[in-house]
Amino acid sequence: MVKVSVIIPVYNAERYLKKCLDSICVQTLKEIQIICVNDGSTDDSLKILQDFARKDCRFIVLSQTNQYAGVARNKGMKYAVGKYLAFLDADDYFEPDMLEKMYLRAEEDNLEVVMCRFSRYDEQTGEMVIPGRTFEDSFFHDKEVFSGISLKHAGIFQITNGWAWDKLFRTDFVQQCGYEFSDFRSSEDGFFSYMLVARAKRMSYMDDILVTHRVNELNSLSSTKEKNWLNGFKMLLLIKDELIERDIYNIYEQSFLNRVVSFLTWYLDSMNSFGAYKNCYMYMKTYMESQVGVLKHSREYYFQEELYDCYQRVITLSLEEYLYWENKKHINNIYIQSETIRKQWRTIAERGWVFPYHLMEKGKTVVLYGAGKLGQAYYSQLADSGFCRELIWVDKQYDKYAYMGVVVQKPEIITQKKFDYIFLAVKDKDSQKEVREWLFAQGVASEKIKGFGQK
Question: pTM value?
């Protein structure tokens, strides 16, 4: 009988892959299935996987076009036959007794989820760091077996992070819940992991350090998340919607909102480009707060009040004011003090190319007028966020943009469509005035017209 199925998504991981796979092959628990999903690698990763499979019959090697780790894990789960599921990233590795210890704990206490501690290996410095747990431990009350609901403040979002590689899941429990990993490029495991621990009735936490997680690897997806900066926000909103759907949001609200505050302050700080930093800042300010309602509760509602203060500054200050505040905190940092950086900050603040979600309600039919750089930025954000019930994109030069591969229609389509708002993604004031007058001539009411630069 296969006791544990280990699922490993692999994308261009040849540098670390052998160490990862070796850590699975030498597990003291022998009755395991090792499912490796090659996610369209262009290096020698597939060859390495095939070499391991030739030597060890426990391996199954699958391949797909590059669709990111979440889709690869979902594919692997379809082939899993083990009583439990474990997940490992191709640049991380397990301790030799990891699966045996967690399997025995799960069997002994009839658990749906088992969690363990981990260490971090810094790829840039070569240092091994073991994160402390003083804050997280305050939620346990010395419970050997617990559910999320039984924790103090229902603190399930505090005792663990939203990744899968430090957990063992009972397969039939995962199947019963019906959850899969999101198809995001990053933050893809948060929904899967958090919702399973939120719904589990029997869990346990092991104090053993059984996994090593590699950090500061510049080519990893987590290090390039600014390319898809919306994903972290989408993950949080998916969790909130599912908690509401399951009628358990009232139980977990305090725990969840505290995670929102800690995650978003970290997420903003983790962006490696000014563009992504600006996008996250403005999205938090103009949209995310209206969806989660952090500030509807007092400061005392939050476990780490300094993080709440940071979040509150994001929501209440302009970007330029916030960066000035951050600049004061790092006044001895010459890089941040430089005039060049301050000019970049001002440019970012003045640009404001994040869609102003506060100007309209979610779930409406919106016509976006304008297919230039501004319109393309707004269209991408609206389409990715799912903010609109229906999104219609128009431009008077639609034929030019269509030739360039931009999916845009002619403005006259508005006379054939029902819509709630028209948003003018046009920066030039004279051009905006001209479009407004044309819209008025088509019988569009002024209150339905919103535009760039509107407060």
Answer: 0.75
